[in-house]
Amino acid sequence: MAGNTSRPGVSVTSRVLAILAAFDERHRRLTLSELARRADLPIPTAHRLANELVAGGALTRRPQGDYVVGRLLWDVGLLAPVEADLRRVAEPILHDVHATTRATVHLAVRDGDHVLYLERMRGRASVPVMSTIGSTLPMHSTGVGKVLLAHAPPDVRERVAARLTRVTPYTVTQPPILAEQLERVRRDGYATTSEEMTLGAASLAVPVVRDDEVVVAAIGVVVASLRRDRARLLAALQVAARGISRQLSER
């Protein structure tokens, strides 16, 4: 939540940023009163600024009257150098993975303590998928998230482990078990999940490593089951990750 932005003397920019920061993974839709409370603003001020943000495309007001993040913020976010280069380089390679596997294919990066999806190519409609381009999900319950969490700084891993939420009955919520899984990810070079984010879906993901050995992203697939095709899917992802890494290094 923002600081004391209801106090006199705080700039308009700070108040606008407070409104935008009021949205997070658990607060994707906010009524005016909720928005004002989370931004620590008087309701009239929040109403005026929110309406200006709606007019500019940064927020959208739904028919029910509540507010959601607008398309403008996502479009601007894509101009960040890392994300823009990643998507530009990865897109044709991910299309090849999608054509080969017919699975849902993801490109994701770490955004604080969450995983941010930069690209999604939808596979078989029968496999349920929670992600959308621009959305964030918990790292501990997704394949790409576990890859990114395994290579995140220790303080990030500690924060995530301290608040493991149960998404499905199969989500890992015990820190020691998660720590063992992350160690295995670092050792084996890939992560898997089975119905931890969505019932009826399994995922497999690998890191995208820059030439300085820094993990900058993860790519993964979501399928109904990994029992039969794990080796084939893993090989396709590893080839794709090497291709993305090579092109990033050349740039």
From TrEMBL:
Top-level division of the source organism's lineage: Bacteria
One GO BP on record is: negative regulation of DNA-templated transcription
Q: Which PROSITE patterns match?
A: HTH_ICLR, ICLR_ED
Where does the IclR-ED domain start and stop, copy by copy? 72-251
Keywords carried by this UniProt record:
DNA-binding, Transcription, Transcription regulation
Q: Where is the HTH iclR-type domain?
A: 10-71
InterPro entries documented for this protein:
GAF-like_dom_sf, HTH_MetabolicPath_Reg, Tscrpt_reg_IclR_C, Tscrpt_reg_IclR_N, WH-like_DNA-bd_sf, WH_DNA-bd_sf
Q: Name one GO molecular function term.
A: DNA binding
Gene3D superfamilies attached to this UniProt entry: 3.30.450.40, Winged helix-like DNA-binding domain superfamily/Winged helix DNA-binding domain (1.10.10.10)
Taken from the record, one Pfam family name reads: IclR_C
PANTHER family the UniProt entry points to: HELIX-TURN-HELIX TRANSCRIPTIONAL REGULATOR, ICLR FAMILY, HTH-TYPE TRANSCRIPTIONAL REPRESSOR ALLR
This chain belongs to the protein called IclR family transcriptional regulator
